[in-house]
Each structure stands twice: as C-alpha cells, then as structure tokens.
Amino acid sequence: MMLFKSTAYFRRVTDITPEFLEKLGVKGLILDVDNTLTTHDNPMPAERVPEWVNLMKKNRIKLIIVSNNHPPRVKPFADMLGIDYVCEGKKPLSKGFNEAVKKLKLDRKNIAAVGDQIFTDVLGANLYGIKMLYTAPIEHEKTTFFKIKRTLEKPFLPKKFEIKE
User: Fold this and answer.
1) I need a labelling partner for 114 at 20 to 30 A (CA). Which of 26, 38, 81, 145 fits?
2) Concatenated DSSP letters of 92-110
3) CATH tag, 8-156
4) Residue closest to 61 by CA, chosen among 124, 120, 121, 114
C-alpha cells in the first residue's frame, strides 16, 4: 500500500460535489479543520463552507470533524456548522478515525477523509484504509515548524486537481 496516496485532489473542500461522492460510493466524510474548513486557528469557517456543509447534509452525506486539536478549538467550530466532531484524534494514528467511523455508523468503504496535510490526514486515511480526498491548504502557515513540514510534503503533493463541473 502506498502511504501518501489520495483518491482525488481538490483546490478547496467546497469543490467536492455530492455527484462526485456518489460516483465513489461515499456516504460520509471525515473532515479536517485547520486549512481545510478554515484558516489556521480561525474560529469562523472559510467562505462558502457553511453553504457546502448544508449542501452535503441535503444530499444525505454524513459529516464529522476529526482534529488533532483540543475541544476549545474544535467544539465551537463544529457546533457552528452543526456537525459532530472528534477532538485529539492523534492523526495519523487510528484513534480519531475509529471514533469517527463508530459515530458515522457507515462501512469504511463508504467513508472518505478530507484534509490538507500529507503526514496527518493523507497518511492517516491510508493507514486506516479509507479513501482520501486531498485539498490544497487554504493558507500556508507562517511558523518555522509549518514551513519545514510543508517543505517536506512537497514531493507528495498532487500535480493536478479535479476540475469542478
């Protein structure tokens, strides 16, 4: 198994459509927060994310956030969007994925993870055996730690993205 493989690549989470998910047989999404649904540590969702969440719900796509962050960061954000969450998910380890799958009550083959980080989201989904929908980060972090991490991710990043219909 390739450890850094994604099923599809998107510029933004809002480019993922219910039609695309239906073709994949996906009925539930495990979502990352920082730089996927909003910028790092931002308490508000990115532009078009609330409408996208509503579109997914309307199309009976189950949503849950799995974040390595702590409850004070994740709970208010998830509550604002009206979706369930798992904090301190320890991605890329299976802890958060296990909890999310139990809450979604779906078979793994019908679940995809969505996120922007190669070494947590992509690796975690691959190790757990679920589909991975990679999204380009909304924002590149300014700290030295994140600059180094993003540099290390470059060889694994996609060369092209799905085209939104």
Assistant:
1) 145
2) TSSHHHHHHHHHHT--GGG
3) 3.40.50.1000
4) 114
